[in-house]
């Protein structure tokens, strides 16, 4: 579990693999300790929002190929998308930007 902290927002706790994935999207590596400085936050928000839009588009295209209810096709649920997984972290980024604060992990 990785805990992200900022004076501007409640802590965000997530599994290590999700933290590594989200940090990768914004151009950071998951290390034992790290920081997203207030100067890096606008670009991080932009990158993460772009990834969410791409994920939603790809999921919508995938939804169109489902054969739900057709004979011979088992019903199934889509896994949770990036928008849902990234929301708490994206919210933290936005609050940190608003209050000109950094985000830390591993402290």
UniProtKB/TrEMBL annotation:
It comes from the Bacteria. InterPro entries: DUF1840. It holds the Pfam family DUF1840. This is DUF1840 domain-containing protein.
């Amino acid at each position: 579990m990785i805990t992200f902290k900022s004076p501007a927002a409640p802590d965000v706790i997530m599994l290590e693999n999700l933290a590594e994935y989200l940090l990768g999207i914004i151009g950071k590596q998951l290390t034992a300790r790290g920081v997203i400085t207030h100067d890096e936050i606008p670009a991080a928000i932009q990158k993460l929002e772009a990834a969410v839009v791409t994920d939603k588009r790809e999921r919508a295209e995938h939804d169109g190929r489902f054969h739900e209810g057709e004979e011979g096709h088992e019903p199934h649920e889509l896994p949770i998308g990036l928008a849902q997984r990234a929301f708490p972290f994206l919210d933290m980024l936005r609050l940190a930007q608003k209050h000109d604060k950094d985000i830390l992990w591993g402290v």
